[in-house]
């Protein structure tokens, strides 16, 4: 008589039980600032809706990832007009989930949603490394008068004492460039990933800069606009699907990915294929975490 509650991937309810689930999906439908075009607050529900059409068996890792359990929380109520409040809300939610030993998957929303999440992770894992997939560095100190925005996210995370590695960059401000040099942040440009023959060596270099516990923050504008146009500031010359998977899989094999987020999808700015790609990316990362070092 009733449609089932829309959990990620629309899996059978016996795999969505909160206490038993390995993964918990948190939706942060929040958008404080857009550097070009907005709409990423609509990303989380679009990803969850599209996820019901992904194949649940992952042939690459030979696993039905959903059987580890995926619980989808109701949306975190966005804090209207107060970025600090949203950071605090996501910090509190994530901290509660980490006490329950969950792997948290946060869906944004603009990139600032990562700040509170990483703060909670940093408290649990003091030696945490963050691997950022992104076209932009996001290390400005302020953007439009605010220290809490998508353009300042990694500056705030770096300020927590977190080691950052950035992959896929191809658009930086001078401030971003100077800050990265001053703080010796490891950066890999999109052009570095353009040669598949060198991708394995590059992935090894990325691994060298990561500690044992890794948090993935994935801004979908990492991808080339030919496969991901549904984002506020798409940048030409980006990497492809298999570039991302090659790096993610190797990191999961050699390190422990303890949590991740996928942010900045603005579904109305591109074809439905973009939203499906984001949903499949979420499921692939879950699968790699599950397969781990096996």
From TrEMBL:
Residues reported to bind Mn(2+): 111, 134, 136, 138, 219, 221
GO biological process: putrescine biosynthetic process from arginine, via agmatine
Pfam families attached to this UniProt entry: Arginase (PF00491)
GO MF term set: agmatinase activity; metal ion binding
UniProt cofactor(s): Mn(2+)
Keywords on record: Hydrolase, Manganese, Metal-binding
Annotated protein name in UniProt: Agmatinase
Organism: Candidatus Daviesbacteria bacterium RIFOXYD1_FULL_41_10
């Amino acid at each position: 008589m009733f449609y089932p509650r829309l959990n990620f991937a629309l899996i059978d309810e016996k795999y969505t039980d909160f206490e038993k689930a390995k993964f918990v999906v948190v939706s942060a439908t929040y958008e404080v600032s857009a550097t070009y075009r907005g709409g990423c607050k609509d990303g989380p529900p679009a990803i969850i809706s599209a996820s019901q059409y992904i194949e649940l068996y992952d042939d690459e890792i030979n696993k039905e990832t959903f059987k580890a359990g995926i619980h989808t929380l109701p949306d975190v109520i966005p804090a209207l007009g107060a970025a600090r409040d949203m950071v605090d809300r996501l910090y509190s939610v994530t901290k509660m989930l980490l006490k329950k030993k969950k792997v948290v998957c946060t869906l944004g929303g603009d990139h600032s949603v990562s700040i509170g999440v990483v703060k909670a992770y940093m408290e649990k894992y003091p030696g945490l490394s963050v691997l950022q997939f992104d076209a932009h560095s996001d290390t400005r100190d302020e953007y439009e008068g605010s220290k809490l925005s998508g353009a300042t996210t990694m500056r705030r995370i770096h300020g927590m004492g977190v080691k950052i590695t950035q992959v896929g960059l191809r658009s930086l401000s001078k401030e971003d460039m100077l800050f990265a040099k001053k703080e010796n942040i490891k950066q890999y440009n999109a052009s570095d990933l353009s040669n598949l023959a060198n991708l394995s060596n590059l992935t090894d270099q990325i691994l060298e800069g990561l500690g044992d516990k890794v948090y993935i923050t994935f801004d979908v504008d990492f991808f080339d606009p030919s496969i991901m146009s549904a984002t506020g500031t798409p940048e030409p010359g980006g990497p492809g699907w298999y570039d991302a998977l090659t790096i993610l899989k190797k990191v999961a094999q050699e390190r422990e990915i303890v949590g991740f987020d996928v942010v900045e999808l603005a579904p109305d700015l591109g074809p439905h294929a973009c939203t499906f790609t984001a949903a499949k990316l979420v499921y692939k990362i879950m699968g790699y975490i599950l397969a781990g070092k096996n």
